[in-house]
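Support request, please re-run this one:
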Amino acid sequence: MNYYPEGINFTDKKFTSIDEIKEAIINGDIIESKVLLCDKEHNLHIDLGVMSGIIPRCEGALGIEEETVRDIALISKVNKPVAFKIAAIKQDEFGNDYALLSRRIVQLECMRDYISKLECGDIITAKVTHLEKFGAFIDIGAGLNSLIPIDMLSVSRINHPRERVYIGQIIQVVLRKKEEHKMTFSLKELLGTWEENAAMFSVGETVMGIVRSIENYGVFVELTPNLAGLAEPCKNLEPGQKVSVFIKSVLPDKMKVKLVIVEAFNDFALPGELEYFIKDGSISHWKYSPDNAVKLIETRFV
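Re-run finished. Output below.
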């Protein structure tokens, strides 16, 4: 069974009969629906069509009962899709039928049958769920979160993950480090080597870029997430600002691209869709630097 990030194949399942719900219980179907309400006891309420469904607080997420996950993980799910199984049909105090649901069971199965089997270098599909200055949190399956540290989002340096990715974005990531209770993922190894990115540009071209850093000796301009060049100092620029640049020279041995800023624009760059040079499978070694480069930049997945 495939375990995807929540919402990636969302259809907001609605049942038309109790028999259909009973069949889902027997089959152990994984279902996704949007959370309508998180009540004061932090139970999640869902509309299943023919009846309502309730995910009790303790079944809302792996780690809630163990107190390793905070209740904000439940509160934040209102109006968002969650994956769950139907455990049983119950009756409330007024004699009305409702479905008892469990998201925790799906997460346990996902951890056991999918996530625990991942090895360093494996490439998977993930969904960006939350951004902090130090990195991007991603759903790697069934609502289970992991982290991409900010320095692993790209070779080109950024000040905040929101400059590279956005919440809700579906991305490909590679498992960089696996510990007993923690996994760390990376994105930059999938976005191409220096040579692959430099091959997209030619000396003499004028192209669009994004100001990433302003130093006394020059301005670093990002051409792609894994390629930046240096332009001479220029006044009245801000990080994130769009500029057009003339490509003066490309120096593979020094991994340098020399640029001249032609024009600065008043608009600022937003994160866009990413171009992958590696999309799936598994990698054991990635070398960013060209063979003849003075400096070696590589990643070994062990």
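Helices lie at 18-27, 72-75, 103-113, 194-198. The radius of gyration is 24 Å.
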